[in-house]
Write a structure and sequence with these properties.
199 residues, 2 helices
């Protein structure tokens, strides 16, 4: 069910977007401010390059390190990313691996995760030589997300993938927010909505 609502707002379009047609630039800013592409999936694997998430019907969702809550780090022994909710020192904030395992909030394989869609990536499969067969312009080792053009060990490209983020309020493992209730906060300039708090 949908509820039709009229909203009046002032949308700021930065000069760097003036190269786009006005209607497109304004629509992009409205979508950036009001679109709610929040999804829930399950972590299927983790590498130092990204967390891979599946929604059952779609498996090519990646959350790269720069879109994790800060401070985060990859634990090579556990083969999982973790977040430090409240670092005990500036040294831990700078290098979360200095923390004790019991202080870490791990993003383990199999856990349900809430994330926001940051971008969609399409790759048009064109006929031609495979990667590594001397195609001009190939640059092996470039790319930060598995399946990117030129990523290490990549021989094929995913036709479509989603880049997600958990670097915001209410995002991350569902277990992190269990028992939290929605409490209204004063709306600021950024238009914050609700903030979960522990009971």
């Amino acid at each position: 069910m949908f509820v039709l609502t009229n909203i009046e707002d002032t949308i700021r379009v930065e000069p760097r977007f003036f190269v786009k047609p006005a209607a497109v630039a304004i629509a992009d800013q409205i979508n950036a401010k009001y679109a709610n592409h929040v999804l829930v999936g399950r972590i299927v694997s983790s590498t130092s390059e990204a967390i891979r998430v599946s929604m059952g019907f779609f498996d090519d969702i990646y959350i790269p390190p720069h879109l994790l809550p800060s401070p985060s780090a990859f634990d090579y022994q556990e083969q999982a990313w973790f977040w430090l909710l409240d670092p005990a020192s500036d040294a831990q904030r700078a290098d979360p691996l200095l923390s004790q395992p019991e202080e870490r909030m791990y993003l383990d394989t199999g856990e349900s995760i809430r994330f926001v869609v940051e971008s969609n990536c399409f790759y048009d499969h064109e006929p031609g030589p495979a990667v590594g067969e001397g195609k001009l312009g190939d640059n092996p080792g470039v790319g930060s997300v598995p399946g990117d053009a030129g990523a290490k060990g990549t021989t094929t490209h995913t036709a479509y993938k989603i880049i997600g983020s958990i670097a915001g309020q209410g995002l991350g493992l569902l277990a992190w927010w269990a028992g939290a209730e929605q409490v209204p906060v004063e709306e600021g300039e950024g238009g914050e909505e609700m903030e979960p708090v522990e009971q």
